[in-house]
């Protein structure tokens, strides 16, 4: 009986610790601060051509278009505000298109990755 009385408070304390650790209150779901408030997509869920562009960025090229790696000005103001030169843009090939198309990957200096399929009218934060 004495053992049960000593054990009960410890079991309750452990249970409270476990419940607090599993709580979703205040949990951002693993979304980084730079993507706060934006739509998100896992890298693996991007179109195959966008995944290949991300791989090329990680590898440092070579890129299929001369404009790839150019400064992205964020004139639309849809990405977090940063100094000019912070963002770079890369073409995502569009099958059947005879020009660069509308799809791009935009990266930030601190590793942020964004995808647009409508030529900068909207962005999705890429979670990697």
TrEMBL record:
Gene Ontology molecular function, alphabetical: hydrolase activity; RNA binding; RNA endonuclease activity
Sequence intervals crossing the membrane: none
Sorted UniProt keywords: Hydrolase, Nuclease, Signal
Pfam family, one: Ribonuclease
Domain of life (superkingdom): Bacteria
Signal peptide positions on this chain: 1-25
PROSITE patterns: PROKAR_LIPOPROTEIN
Record's protein name: Ribonuclease
Originating organism: Streptomyces pilosus
Species classification: Bacteria, Bacillati, Actinomycetota, Actinomycetes, Kitasatosporales
């Amino acid at each position: 009986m004495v053992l049960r009385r000593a054990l009960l408070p410890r079991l309750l304390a452990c249970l409270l610790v476990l419940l607090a650790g599993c709580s979703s209150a205040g949990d951002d779901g693993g979304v980084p601060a730079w993507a706060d408030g934006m739509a998100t997509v896992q890298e693996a869920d991007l179109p195959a051509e966008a995944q290949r562009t991300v791989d090329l960025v990680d590898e440092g090229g070579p890129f299929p278009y001369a404009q790839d790696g150019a400064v992205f000005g964020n004139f639309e103001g849809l990405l977090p505000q940063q100094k000019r030169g912070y963002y770079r843009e890369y073409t995502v090939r569009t099958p059947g298109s005879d020009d660069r198309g509308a799809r791009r990957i935009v990266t930030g200096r601190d590793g942020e990755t964004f995808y647009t399929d409508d030529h900068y009218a909207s962005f999705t934060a890429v979670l990697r």
